[in-house]
Design a protein that fits this description.
Blueprint lengths: L20 H11 L7 H9 L19 E4 L5 E5 L3 E2 L9 H11 L11 H13 L9 H8 L11 H17 L2 H11 L6 E2 L1 H9 L8 H8 L5 H4 L5 H17 L5 H9 L18 H12 L9 H6 L3 E4 L3 H15 L7 E7 L6 E5 L25 E2 L5 H10 L6 E4 L7 E2 L4 E2 L13 E3 H7 L2 H11 L1 H11 L17 E2 L1 H12 L3 E3 L4 E5 L5 E4 L12 E3 L3 H16 L17 E6 L5 E7 L4 E7 L14 H11 L20 E2 L4 E4 L9 H13 L65
Parallel strand pairs: 1-5, 3-4
Antiparallel strand pairs: 1-2, 5-15, 6-7, 6-20, 8-13, 9-12, 9-22, 10-11, 14-17, 15-16, 18-19, 19-20, 21-22
Helix pairs in contact: 1-2, 1-6, 3-9, 3-11, 5-6, 5-7, 9-11, 11-12, 15-22, 16-18, 16-19, 16-21, 17-21
Family: In the N-terminal section; belongs to the glycosyltransferase 51 family. In the C-terminal section; belongs to the transpeptidase family.
Keywords: Carboxypeptidase, Cell shape, Cell wall biogenesis/degradation, Glycosyltransferase, Hydrolase, Membrane, Multifunctional enzyme, Peptidoglycan synthesis, Protease, Transferase, Transmembrane, Transmembrane helix
Pfam families: Transgly, Transpeptidase
């Protein structure tokens, strides 16, 4: 290589002309037509806002720094940027790049003081005589144009040129030549979204800038003159011609030998491209896009602009636990393999004591390109996002009843079918049925919850008050609109799994609600922490902590919810965990089997799961539940961890409640003394359905005539026939439902009780 190497040229600061206006004024006179009146006053006005501009912070010259999103363990999830940029040090850049850039863009770079009068004169002569086309901007001027004055880049005027020259002189007084060259090479546009030489090397040749050959370096050096038309992906011929010009100039300036020049020009352009990530989302796009949208929501807590997120150099550490996320995706995917391809799944898992979102499945990652709707959070901007939750919504009626002082051992009429008065609306609720029209008779609220009796819980909801149920749901974290009608407790309003997981987390956290958050901390480009959600209600936190239900009510609700999983009649028995970790939960199935849900809590996590067809066309097989998905997910997450207990508290203060209108009142001396009439009813239905298919709801079995209950303070149970040897009902965990009649507005006629 020739001796005129950049490394032999000292990168020290040199004495430069004064940066006073006189120097700029002299250049101004040399460039514009002589005799232009008032030039001094005009020039002063052009640079007035720049006189106090501080160029001492080199970081600000990199006008666009990517923001990086990380999982809780530091795994990179996303990189948000308007351009692909990866700054490096000067010794990480091939000497060919450094020398070739100087030879091509500014051969007097080491001799001028920011702008080059000789270069300007030469450019004017070449352009006016038609002997070619040559730019007059130095490397320092190009750096200023692409960073400090980036907003003025398209302003082709003397004013911009003067401002550019003025700042170039200031830069030259502050930095060495090598420092300026490095900033230039780290910021210049090399086309195809690549900014900076390292990004360009990776984009076109999939190698580091230090590894570039002479021919490769020359090809990249030629691109910035016209990034659109000189990049080798779209315009190889243009790139080749420009590359050869770079090699010619390197030869002329003594940076390479004739042999090196000829060998490099004989080479073709052999690309080995690396595609940049689509919209910056690298892993778990449903979660990453949720965080991105949350940060940029103009009505949200963060309200970052495009420039702040895509140019601000933020580091966003999220709450996502990679192991939990992997377990969630595997559990959803395994379940989907047994279902119609049109059926999708969603899952959200939240740590109750912190509100941290540990896992979120809004769809399958490999389908992100075509299915961008996040099924865990619903479509942003839609007034009522989400899907019907089914009977998992009954937990809010349970808690409203507990808050009203109604004991879980209070009796409720769960007979089916049932015609229930609606005094609040002055009408009668359309006839209701339990699943398969099972007649559960009169039983405790706890046992009605375990078997998910529709008739019993609509009666309880009406006795407590629909407005009370809505208030509880809202206080616990349901953000979507809720319809104030008797079908509310049956889960016909749209909700998101994010909201459901957040609400159930309140129960697991002793009644304390902490805003769910996917963000742990945010650090700015200077390394300063600007958001810290590790402690709610602090100056840097965006989360809030509030006791929304009492510890006593939360404890009582947990005890009732355990019966869904750990009793023989519970609808969520498959959710039981093999390590013995206690689980409290509620299952849910929407009308016509279009949605199934499972919301379960342990002291470690609150998890909400949904399966269904987003287009609401395909029904789910009646034998399908989501409790097994919960067990599969939680078993993986808690593997090797010790079991924990829910927060303990005393029982709430209960009163002797009685509502003869809705047949709620009285107490069961034990859970085994409730009306056993439902045993024979279920056994008869099971016998009739034993040979029927499971993909479609079975025909409605002929119900046993049920006398209209007498409206007394304590409803008298129907006469009980001689019980079977086993007094405890043992329903099929996945009973087959009846056909779905057309529902009447405000009620439901075939609400599966799961």
């Amino acid at each position: 290589m020739a001796s005129r190497s950049i490394k032999n040229r000292p990168g020290i600061k040199k004495k430069h002309p004064s940066i006073g206006f006189l120097a700029v004024f002299t250049v101004f006179l040399a460039v514009i037509v002589a005799g232009f009146s008032g030039v001094y006053a005009l020039g002063s006005s052009w640079i007035g806002d720049l006189e106090d501009y501080d160029v001492s912070d080199a970081g600000q010259l990199n006008s666009s720094l990517p923001s990086i999103m990380l999982a809780s363990d530091g795994t990179e999830l996303a990189r948000f940027q308007v351009e692909y940029r990866d700054p490096v040090e000067l010794d990480q850049i091939s000497e060919y790049v450094r020398e070739g850039s100087v030879a091509t863009e500014d051969e007097r770079f080491y001799e001028h003081g920011g702008f080059d009068l000789a270069g300007i004169a030469r450019a004017v002569y070449v352009n006016l005589t038609g002997s070619g086309k040559e730019g007059a901007s130095t490397i320092t001027q190009q750096l200023v144009r692409n960073t400090i004055l980036a907003d003025e880049m398209n302003d082709i005027s003397f004013k911009r040129k003067v401002r550019e020259m003025y700042l170039s002189v200031k830069l030259e007084e502050q930095y060495s030549k090598d420092e300026i060259l490095l900033m230039y090479l780290n910021t210049i546009n090399y086309g195809s979204g690549a900014y900076g030489i390292e990004a360009a090397s990776q984009r076109y040749f999939s190698k580091h800038a230090s590894e570039l050959t002479l021919a490769e370096a020359a090809a990249l050096i030629g691109i910035p003159q016209s990034p659109t038309y000189n990049n080798p992906i779209d315009h190889e011929d243009n790139c080749l011609a420009r590359r050869n010009l770079v090699l010619d100039r390197m030869l002329t300036n003594g940076y390479i030998t004739q042999e090196e020049h000829d060998a490099a020009q004989a080479e073709g352009i052999v690309l080995n491209t690396t595609e940049t990530t689509v919209d910056g989302l690298e892993k778990y796009p449903y979660f990453s896009s949720y965080v991105r949208d949350l940060l940029m929501d103009p009505d949200g807590d963060y309200r970052y602009s495009d420039d702040e997120l895509f140019k601000g150099g933020l580091t966003i550490q999220t709450t996502l636990d990679v192991d939990s996320q992997e377990a969630a995706e595997a559990a959803i995917k395994e379940k989907r393999e047994s279902l119609n391809p049109a059926i999708y799944g969603a899952l959200v898992a939240i740590e109750p004591e912190t509100g941290y979102i540990k896992a979120m499945v809004g769809g399958e990652d490999d389908e992100w390109a075509t299915q961008k709707l996040n099924l865990a959070t619903g479509e942003r901007g839609v007034p009522n996002p989400g899907r019907p939750s089914g009977s998992s919504f009954k937990v809010f009626t349970l808690i409203a009843a507990l808050e009203a002082g109604i004991s879980p051992q209070t009796m409720v009429d769960c007979s089916s079918p049932a015609t229930i008065p609606n005094t609040e609306y002055g009408s009668t609720i359309p006839p209701l049925e339990n699943i398969n029209n099972y007649n559960y008779g009169t039983r405790s609220i706890q046992r009605a919850f375990a078997v998910s009796s529709n008739t019993g819980f609509v009666r309880l909801e009406m006795a407590v008050g629909i407005d009370k149920v809505i208030k509880v749901a809202k206080d616990m974290g349901i953000t979507s609109a809720l319809s104030a009608n008797p079908s509310l407790t049956l889960g016909q309003s749209n909700v998101t799994m994010l909201d459901m997981a957040s609400a159930y987390a309140v129960i697991a956290n002793g009644g304390v609600r902490i805003d769910p958050t996917p963000v742990l901390t945010i650090t700015n480009s200077k390394g300063e922490v600007i958001v810290d959600n590790t402690t709610p209600d602090t100056s840097l936190s965006k989360t809030h902590r509030e006791q929304v239900i009492s510890p006593e009510v939360a404890h009582a609700a947990t005890e009732v919810m355990k019966s869904v999983v750990n009793t023989s009649e519970g609808t969520g028995q498959k959710a039981a965990l093999p390590n013995g970790q206690v689980v409290a939960a509620k299952t849910g199935t929407s009308e016509s089997y279009k949605d199934i849900t499972f919301c379960g809590i342990t002291p470690q996590l609150a998890t909400a799961i949904w399966f269904g067809d987003p287009s609401n066309q395909v029904t789910i097989p009646t034998s399908t539940g989501a409790d097994d998905v919960f067990s599969r997910f939680m078993s993986a997450v808690l593997d090797g961890q010790p079991t924990e207990q829910f927060p303990q508290a005393a029982d709430p203060t209960y009163k002797n409640f009685s509502d003869p209108t809705y047949h709620v009142g009285g107490s069961a001396s034990s859970s085994n003394t409730d009306d056993e009439k439902d045993d024979e009813k279920k056994k008869d239905a099971e016998d009739k359905d034993a040979d029927k298919g499971k993909d479609d709801p079975a025909p409605t079995p002929t119900p046993t005539p049920t006398p209209t209950p007498t409206p007394t303070p304590t409803p008298t149970p129907d006469p009980t026939p001689t019980p079977t040897p086993d007094p405890t009902p043992k329903p099929d965990p996945d009973p087959t439902p009846t056909p779905t009649p057309t529902p009447d507005p405000g009620g439901t006629t075939d609400k599966p009780a799961s």
